[in-house]
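Protein: Putative Chitinase 1
Species: Tripterygium wilfordii
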Amino acid sequence: MELLKFFLTLIVLQAISTSQIPNLVTAANSNLFREYIGAEFKDVKFSDVPINPNVDFHFILSFAIDYDTSDSPSPTNGKFSVFWDSQNLSPSEVSSIKKQHPNVKVALSLGGDTVRNESAFFKPSSVDSWVSNAVSSLTDIVKEYNLDGIDIDYEHFQADTVR
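Structure follows.
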């Protein structure tokens, strides 16, 4: 039951985040380009990507992960941290690219594959506390970076086998 409650909350969070985008693009519109950016820390900047002014362009900052940022990261039960190249993809850079190109939106992606080359497992210790922590920490990141949406990309799950 808790897992169902959690997934329903994720769906609501995603619906809320996408409702903030004023010009929703339908699947039939082929003038949309989405690009994950920042996951590999290779000094990639928004300015490295050519942006066609006739295309709705969505950068997706990769990744916000609910792990701590230590040398040996561990899960934080919904307290998300930025794991993208925040020096080159900073809040001021997000603001700048959006001012230069009105067709650009910037979102963040949750989860991803790894943290410091180890699989990033989705493993909430409590659904209620995970949801509370996630809403709080993600709201802070979305506000700090003035983001337009949230993408969910969890790739590894660990279920509680005790019922």
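Remarks: The first helix runs from residue 2 to 19.
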